[in-house]
Each structure stands twice: as structure tokens, then as C-alpha cells.
Design goal:
It is built from 3 helices and 5 strands, in the order E-E-E-H-H-H-E-E. By secondary structure, it is of the alpha+beta class. Helix 1 packs across helix 2.
Amino acid sequence: MPALDDPFPPVHRHAAAPHLCGSVQGIEFWIESPRGKPLRCVITDAALRARFGAAETEQSWLEAYEQHRVEIEGRARRALASQEDVHVVLLTDPEGRLKTAVGRCST
């Protein structure tokens, strides 16, 4: 459960549980902006494998996400801290460090 002063609580009422992403290989999840808007985030399968030791299977990606949810969602929250109407993709650099890519939402 997030801290009471957490500006980005998880979004339970707006979206389904974290699930396989249909547009890229990875896990899609949602967090809520400080203004209450649900924001889409994705962590790639490559990031889950390189950073969190996931295997090549989709089930392993989901398990790695669940085991490391606090770190993954925290990274997405930090990327969104000063922005609205964006989405976040979490990926890794060649050394396996977690990186963020932030882009504008099309809607």
C-alpha cells in the first residue's frame, strides 16, 4: 500500500492488473498522476531479463514484475513526477541499468 503522502498511488479503479503489453514485448501497468489521471507505463521484456533476472517466458516477466513492483513503479513515478499526459517505457542500457523513456500520449 502506498504511503499517504505518495503523489502517485497505484491505479486500481482505472485499469486491469499488470498484464502483457500488446504493442511491445513487456508488461503494461498503470499509475495515477498527482491530478488523478491514469498514466500508462510499460517495462520491456529485455529490461525484466537484464535488470531483474527474468527468463524468456511471459510468465517469468509477470513474476519478475510482481517481485520488483516497488522498484519498477517507483522508477516510473520519478519519470512522471513533473509531467502530465505522457507514457513511460522502462528499458535497460547495455550494462543492464534501468533507464526511462518518456513520450507524449496520443489521446
